[in-house]
Design a protein that fits this description.
The protein is of the alpha/beta class. The protein contains 25 helices and five strands.
Length: about 500
């Protein structure tokens, strides 16, 4: 081992793939020691069923975007296939790691276990690991007292500007040498994917187009499966993977609101940024939500698993057009709006009567913006297993008629219904034999019959879950959850901040 190793600091990037408004990077650059930017494609996540290629491609695009920005500083992010401890061991052969800087990560159980192991590693190797909170979410928080006020203060703090000199970083030739010692990651991706492209540069384009124009219809179209694709911000993957900080987005919307004619739309948008942080904080404090219902009273709720039902749902072949269109759209593009996400979960857990855990991994693999802190609380809320939220059993036909009345979204994603008369686009099973002959269309062949009877299944779910809400254990757990997560001045979370 080289006994004259140069001391360095490492900035370990995870779900914070940006250079601006990045506290760990700022702290590292303030020291009189050269900095190595590091991203590790960890096998524990590459193998995890929550993730899919679309996520890794988004990350690779984000890293390429960061490297383009860093190139004038004669450096780049060292991106390797490894685990964080093995990576540090290899780097330690050439350099003395003084400090590791990173953001706290609200991830899944395997990343939390990894963090605990890395903390022990740093202690044993006399390495200081300094973590910063991200987006106002705090690890280890015991109470939500003053949480909202503290979150508001963080959002109001000045943005952290990236300022550096070439001499602050480990240079490209040194990083190339490290790449020969590690398994360097290939950052190439296909160019013809139907997904949003990763990176801060692209994220800023979406942000500017939303604030300059698209926000005017934000609340009017937020529930519409087709129109929301343009009028919603579409910033969720850039926030989930940290291409943009919530503070950057929050402050940009406040600035844009000054001259906007649609101030209420931007206020409503910011309220959802607050709710996002609220749910992530809730997941951070209730880690069992990854596996079981947060309300322990629902642990005894048992549902019979049907592989047939689940496969029909995953592939968009349930016989309910809006459900199928939503799933096909999600599978292909990585995005659907919030209401259609709720519809998919409600249909799976209530109408098909399947456990929400069986929906979790398929949805997380499809959501380009998969964020664990949003994913699990929303799954359980829509499944009606929190005990504190109103029970919502979405009617796919009612939602279809209300939010896609002309069938534009359905016709796009379920093209086999495109040439039918509009009533049959929403309810193809209403076609008589004569209707089918006239349309040269055969139910069960061109498009499936509904796989369940909607009316009876909704009735069963409603009766079962409403009865469970009366259970003493469910009630006691509901009180515990409310006490733990009720935010001071909760109304402030909901109101506009004009």
């Amino acid at each position: 081992m080289n006994t004259n190793r140069e001391p360095i600091h490492i900035v370990w990037f995870k779900r914070d793939l940006r250079l601006e408004d990045h506290e760990p990077l700022k702290k590292a650059l303030e020291q009189n020691v050269r900095v190595l930017c590091l991203f590790v494609f960890e096998q524990l996540l590459l193998d995890d069923p929550h993730y899919s290629e679309r996520h890794w491609d988004f990350i690779k695009e984000s890293l390429r975007d960061m490297n383009a920005f860093l190139n004038p500083y004669n450096t780049k992010v060292l991106a390797i296939n490894s685990d964080i401890i093995s990576a540090c061991n290899i780097i330690s052969n050439s350099y003395q790691i003084k400090n590791v800087y990173s953001h706290q990560e609200t991830g899944i159980q395997v990343t939390f276990d990894r963090d605990k192991a890395f903390k022990r590693y740093c202690k044993n190797n006399v390495i200081s690991w300094q973590e910063s909170i991200q987006n106002g979410v705090v690890r280890g928080l015991k109470t939500r007292e003053l949480w909202f006020e503290n979150w508001n203060k963080i959002m109001a703090e000045p943005l952290i500007t990236f300022t550096a000199q070439t001499s602050n970083f480990l240079p490209l030739d040194a990083i190339s040498e490290l790449e020969t010692q590690c398994q360097s990651a290939n950052l190439e991706t296909a160019t013809d994917k139907p997904f949003q492209e990763g990176g801060t540069k692209t994220g800023n384009k979406y942000l500017l187009s939303f604030l300059n124009n698209r926000h005017k219809d934000y609340m009017f179209h937020i529930s519409k499966p087709e129109k929301s694709r343009k009028s919603c911000s579409r910033l969720s993957p850039y926030i989930a993977w940290g291409n943009l900080s919530v503070r950057q987005v929050y402050q940009a919307s406040k600035t844009a609101q000054v001259s906007s004619s649609y101030k209420k739309q931007l206020s409503a948008f910011r309220s959802r940024l607050r709710w996002q942080a609220h749910f992530i904080q809730k997941f951070e404090m209730e880690h069992i939500m990854e596996k079981v219902s947060v309300n322990k009273g629902y642990h005894k709720l048992k549902k019979s698993i049907s592989e047939h039902y689940q496969m029909a749902w995953k592939t968009g072949q349930t016989g309910f057009p809006l459900v199928d269109a939503s799933m096909r759209c999600l599978n292909q593009t990585g995005y659907i709006n919030f209401r259609m996400r709720a519809l998919l979960v409600s249909f799976f857990t209530h109408i098909l009567w399947q456990p929400w855990q069986d929906a979790s991994k398929h949805l997380s693999r499809q959501f380009l913006d998969f964020e664990p802190g949003i994913h699990y609380p929303q799954l359980q809320m829509q499944a009606g297993e929190t005990g504190i939220n109103n029970l919502r059993i979405y009617n796919p036909i009612k939602n279809s008629l209300e939010h896609d009345p002309d069938g534009i979204f359905i016709k796009h994603w379920v093209p086999e219904l495109r040439d039918l008369d509009l009533p049959f686009v929403h309810e193809p099973y209403l076609m008589t034999t004569l209707d089918q002959q006239f349309n040269n269309f055969q139910l069960g062949i061109d498009y499936p019959f509904p796989i369940v009877d909607l009316k009876s299944k909704r009735k069963r779910a409603s009766e079962t879950l409403w009865n469970m809400k009366k259970n003493p254990k469910v009630k006691n757990e509901s009180m515990r959850i409310l006490k733990k997560h009720t935010i001071d001045n909760r109304s402030n979370l909901l109101k506009n901040d004009d």
